[in-house]
Amino acid sequence: xxxxxxxxxxTKQKALFxxxxxxxxxxxxxxxxxxxxxxxxxxxxxxxxxxNIALDYIGHAANLYEYAVEIEGEGRHRDxxxxxxxxxxxxxxxxxxxxxxxxxxxxxxxxxFSSYSYYLYQLLSDVEDEQFRGIVEKxxxxxxxxxxxSREWVLRLGDGTEESHQRIQNAFNDIWTYIGELFYxxxxxxxxxxKNLAANTESFKSDWKILVSDxxxxxxxxxPDFNQFMVEGSRKGLHTEHLGHLLxxxxxxxxxxxxxxxx
Length: 263
What we know:
The chain is mainly alpha-helical. Helices cover 63% and strands 0% of the residues.
């Protein structure tokens, strides 16, 4: 059952909690996907780089969950949000939960998400909430590195061998229908934007498109159609079948021993 908040029930507390959880879910799930490359990277340096980016995302998620449960004020721990919610209660974007695929797919997804996060965090650096702003400013340095790293790999793969070119082109083609959700906004976003507590993603959509298009063209890749069909619904708890499998793996041990002392 979806846990979406109805407009008439919105308060600053509920809306900010929901917004923080969405940001955290995106980063936790993508971090998990990137962690699947540990020990399987194409070269040692990239194996380490992907593992470090995965750790960055999981650390970002932990900070956001921590503040979310503080805002909620119901005495929950951040681990409760991670390990004891079902797939329909997760609000991550579908693009983050898709299987890791080959290296080209991982890089294509990473570039699209990192470039989006770069513009998003620029705006969130000015939110009214001091603690939220501090979290964003701390993470932003790593977001810049994620973008630089993934963009460099797009260029290397796109303008590399015939096989690397075709693989990353296929990756962008396959993932493209999921990018529309990056800019989805609902009553939670609008409510918080009025209070300067959330970013209006429409304000940087054009800049994001230019960055993505310019990068793909520099990499000698074809830019897919931005106006094609786009999937939606993840912010309301609608996900692919892949999220359930991911959560089963991630949550199994903690749910098996919910009262265990992990110290």
